[in-house]
Amino acid sequence: MLRSFPPLATAILLFAVAFALSPLFSSGFAGFEQGQFPVETDFWPIQPAGWAFSIWGVIYAWLIAGAAFGVFKAPDDPDWSAMRPPLLISLMIGTFWIAAANASPILATVMIVVMAATAILAMLRAGSNSPYWQVRPVALYAGWLTAASGVGIGVVLGGYGVLSAQSAALLMLLAVLAVALVAQSRRPQEWGYPLAIVWALVGIIAANAASGTWPVIALAIIGVLCLVAQFVLRGRTPAH
Length: 240
What we know:
The chain has helices spanning about 5-20, 55-75, 80, 85-95, 95-105, 105-125, 135-160, 165-185, 190-210, 215-235.
């Protein structure tokens, strides 16, 4: 007799796979390009170095693994139920995000903000029965999306001349740090969330080192220290 799988858990697995495969159906994405905006600049201080985007490989693989675990090991577990609707919304939008980013930075920025909000909600709703398969992959995903939302908004603000590139970077670093500290305080033991943001901040530091954009570098370093300090002080008792 064939086993039936709950539609929501199955849909999350299917969209996690579709999300991971989406770069294959486009030219990929390693940051916004100069020609996509009316205001030209040498580079955007808010955008991490290209190598930082390699974290997507880990995110894709872990999301798929976690979704598969959910389907086969926790298909009806109430500990998983609350996180599934927002996670599915985020993954569905994410499946089309690269295509949007290459076509319209404004649309892509709106999409990634919604992706981040729903991913954070999923992280906060996740239970703790199977942390390495349930909350932690989502936490890493939500952390990177938090940083990516700040990058997207900062690039749009600079690229359309609303603010200078450096002012936009400083403003969005402050915004990302504020959101990150509040979200992290709600799940202080989940290290995947701050880890992804620290990775993005290190990428920003590296991208700005060559140009000597010291205000951005200094604020990014402060952000790293704040996130690490909050995890050490509030997340000292690790989850299983």
